[in-house]
Give the backbone structure.
Amino acid sequence: MKKNHHMKDEKRLENEEFEQEIKEDEANNAAQDEALEALKQENQKLKDEMLRAMADSENIKKRCAAEMEKTSKYAISSFAKDLLGVADNLDRALEAVQTSNGADCQALLEGVQLTRQELSHVFEKFGITKMDIVGKPFDPNFHQVIQQISDPSKPAGTVIEQLQTGYMINGRILREAMVVVSKE
């Protein structure tokens, strides 16, 4: 009977040890599941951060490319503004020579016309264009009013004369036009 009792004790001990091992395995499994879940969350967080960083990098590339394009388009603005005075003086010379009839003036007229034509080609090459504004409504973004004249044949606020030509560079204002505007 002692032997039987002893065997029962051993089996009970084995069962207890087995149950203890199962509890330890379950605890280990739970801890591993928690660790795995934490790793999954951290992995997802890192993926999100990486995607954001890649998107930020792409946005920076796009902004830099746009800024470089803008810079290259408008880098010559200061130079172009200085050339506008040359264009104005050539236009004035053409007007002055056209009003006189001397034979000597004809050669000068042709030379000035060729120079003005070459300057126009350079302007065109760099995206510099004259504003065509006579007969159009006054726009304070593009025109500077020098004088207002009563003209019943035109609606109020219409540009009736251009005193100084306005210019654009690649669609952006380079110099406002100085204009005469109709009033009521």
User: Anything to note?
Assistant: The radius of gyration is 43 Å. The longest strand covers residues 143-150.
